[in-house]
Every structure is written in C-alpha cells, then in structure tokens.
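Folding Problem: From Residues to Backbone Shape
Fields: amino acid sequence; protein backbone structure tokens
RECORD BEGINS BELOW THIS LINE
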Amino acid sequence: MRFDNYDPGDFYDELFASKGQPRPYTTPLIEKINSLSEGELVQRQQAAQIAMFKMGITFSVYGDSEGTERIFPFDLIPRIVAAQEWQELDRGLKQRIHTLNLFIADIYGEQKIIKDGIIPQDIIYSAKGFLKPCMGLKPPGDIWCHITGTDLVRDKNGQWYVLEDNLRCPSGVSYVLENRRVMKSTFSQVFRTMDIQPVDEYPSHLLETLLNIAPPHLPDPTVVVLTPGIYNSAYFEHSFLAQQMGVELVEGRDLVVADGYLQMRTTKGLQRVDVVYRRIDDDFIDPKVFRSDSMLGVPGLTEVYRAGRVGIANALGTGVADDKVIYAYVPEMIRYYLGEEQILPNVPTYMCWEPKQLEYVLANLDKLVVKAANESGGYGMLVGTQATPSEREEFAEKIKANPRNYIAQPTLCLSRVPTLLNGQFEGCHVDLRPYILYGEDIYVNPGGLTRVALKRGSLVVNSSQGGGSKDTWVLTR
C-alpha cells in the first residue's frame, strides 16, 4: 500500500502539502510506508489493535447495548508536528493556563474581573461549574488547575484555534502513552531516524505536580488517585496512571475523615492521605457540601481541604472555566490579567444570551455548530451543515428556551490526516488535546491525544461518537 493515489483535496493535510508532495519533515515516514510490501501495513495495523486489546486499553460508553467495554480504536498513521510550530503551541498553552488559573483564583476571591466589568456577574453565577462553597478557598501556591487538557483544531489555512478547555477531570493521556508504546514497536526504524520528542515522562511530571501540593514539612507524602470505580468510562486511565506513578488507586469507600485528616483504610489500619488526584466531578466529591446522595465521594473532605491538611488536584471549582460561554471571554481575560494578546486564538464564538447574536444564530443554524455550555463528548451539539431542517428547528427551540446555555461557532474545515480505512488511505478530520501540568512551573507534554473521526466526512472525533486516536509526533528540530 502506497500514498501514490492519496489526495489531500482542499483540506489542510497534516502530512501532505499537496497530492504526491509530503511536507518535508514527514518524508522519512512516508518513504517507510511506501516501501512496505503489499498488505504489510494492514498487518501492522491489525497487530497494533491486538496489542491494544492485550494491554486492556478500553473505554466505556454509558447505555451502550453492546456492552460497556470497548477497545479504543487506534490508527497507525501518526500526526506529525514540526518543532517550530510546537514551540508556538507551547507558548500559547502556557499563556492560556496561566490566565485561566488567575481567573479561577479571582472569581473565588476578590472577583475583580466582575467588578471591573470585564465579565458580567450573571454569566459567572449561572455557570454550572461555579460553586459558591468554594468561595474563599486558598489552594497551595494559589494553583487551581494542576492538570488541563486543551482541545485544539486547525482550519483550512493551517491556523490553530483553541476549541475548548477541560479543567475538571481531563481524560485521555493514558492513550497518548500507550499509543506511543505501540508505535515504537511498529515503526522502530522510523523512530531511530526521526527526532521525535518523548511523551513517557508525563507520569513522573504528574507525580511531581501532585507532590507539589502536599501539606508542607512532610518527609514522604502519600498520594492517591480517587476513581468513581470500574464502571467509569475512564477507569482504565485511572488505574494506569496510579500504576505508572506507583501510588494507590482508591474509591470513596476506601477513604474516611478521622482525627481531622483524610485517611485511607488499609489492612494495617488507617493511613493518612496527603494528596488526592481526583477523577470525580465536584458534585460527587463530598456529600456534606455538594450532592448529598453521592456514594462516590468522602464526607468531610472539603473541610479537611479548606484547613490545608490535604491537597486536591484539580482544585474544587475549576470546572467553571470549562463553561463554553466563559470560554468566549478568555481573550479578554488574557488582556485583563496579563496585558497581552492571545497567542492561540479562540474559534469565533456567538453567545446566544445576547439578543443580537441570538438572532444571527437562529437565522444561520444551517451554517453553524451550536454547543451546550456544559456538555462534552460530542453530546448536546448541533452541526448545522449536517442536520436536517427538522433537527435544526427542534434545536432552535432548545436555544430559545435557555439561551444562556448555548454558544455557536462557524463550521471549521478541520485539518485531516491520512487514515487507514477499509484497506486504503482516507483523509479523516482530527483535533489535538495536549496535556498541561501546573506545578512549580507549567509543563506541556510534547504532543497530546490526536483524536480522529473514523466515519467518512464526520467532524465528531469523540470516542463515544465513533472516533479513534493517533499517535502525535512532535519533532525536536
């Protein structure tokens, strides 16, 4: 199988500048694939999928009649990012995370950004992720968003945009690490000839970030990963990261607040816990403060956290920055807090709570993508160009009933990467989720999760909606 007939068309292709013309930095990979004998690439693809299966790399789909566990689809053709391009992404992501951290600290503190009229108070207070019980919280070092997954896309001209921010419990980094492991065994020769930045330092950086928020003066802090349990869609990742860091994976029932501290039940009695990497949403983490019916969290955890006797990553309340309406204000936040212009722009966004913008959105639903403010995974979304008139009409009623809950954006012509479908190469749309850690410094793992739409023509890359993933190669030079 060769790339001779592969045509990028009118899209920005991550590997090819035009038909038959690889981008210069992708040439070693293209030449290697073109040199493979007939059927060998398909065999390698099948071997990679079997390796994924044996490693147990799965995700769950709630309500799926075919069963809860699925192997995460993986495509063998990687995305490649040039070194200079990555440097700009790195700068832009650090600027954005620094800003969002200042914003979260501000709105749970003095709320200067509201008092100065940059963001309306109603927008903050009506955000699902804004939690009044978090007012006055002081996390260690005033760092709130320790782990972030920021979704990026690029358009027809190759321009990068931030699609959304994920600061609650961003998932997917385990697939980044396991994809790379499979690729290094599949294309070992290419790895020897191309200078590809490693991604496997992420677990050690993550552990360092977590230890950074332990209560002071502890010689050997105890860190745990708190999971909702085996039925959570990202349980594989929870157990994987705990194993990679060498820490305990626990559920809420394994923890208890006793003698003013968070403690873990062990066969030798209670053991103090100093840092919790939570993979549970705020609503469920402490039934005494948030949802009283939660069986997943730990009663009294918030009080111990407020007293500074345990560190939690991410800090409680960070989900306010995931709200897609608040996302639209990030450029203003960057100017307000840093006095800078954004390095990585937002996708142009219409806010339906503003009457004139609502009028435009309703009149142009056939051209726009409309998203619910707090949904994820491709749910609560209308892709107007692919929707029927009745679907657009039905969605218009939802918008009119709750305009605060919706934003709209133009339909971007997302970049594509050659993908192996039915024994041939097809250009499939992709996005990119780099992972950013905020400890003593801000660290961006070089690469991220490239999610790919495995349905022809689809723009939805989420695994729950039929998407898969690719390895992301960031070059060193």
Observations:
- Residues 350-410 form a domain with the Dna Ligase; domain 1 fold (CATH 3.30.1490.270).
- Residues 172 and 449 are 7 Å apart (CA to CA).
- The radius of gyration is 23 Å.
